[in-house]
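Researcher: Structure prediction, please.
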Amino acid sequence: MEAFQPWTKQAVDVSAWAGQTVDIAFVLAVTGANPGPLGWFIDDVSIAEAGTCNPYGVTLSADMASDGYPGAAVTYVLTITNIGGITDTFNITVSGNSWPTSPSVNMITLGSGQSGTFMVTVNIPPGATTGAFDMVTVTATSQASAIDSDSVTLTTTALERLLFLPVVLKN
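Model: Predicted structure follows.
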């Protein structure tokens, strides 16, 4: 069974159909593959009258897994997008990690619809064993509306450190 993927927030501008009656449908189309026993889920759908949409909203995205050698630092680049209707400042926090982890910024301000990037660095301990991993949850939260946030979980895995020694042949 495939692993559960985290919820994603989507916003669609339907202002082109203002004043019209429209039908909205959600369709799962599969070609040549089985969507699995769970299919997909939709939750918290809302349609707001023009000018009344939520002024606050944020999405985060990143490559969510990487690896490195014990003692090394692994850096992730995250993209943050303000999907709200106004300029907002977002607090950036990390949680749930065991390995030293730090974001490059603690907050970022973005205009409506604007995206930006920041980095999160995970330091793999020098004594980490091969295959050891750590997970950190990175969260961006609106300063104006604490209920508007998004998170991604990053997984960092320690690689096997190989030691190559020279071979000396004796005649």
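Model: The chain has a mean pLDDT of 85.
Researcher: Thanks, that helps.
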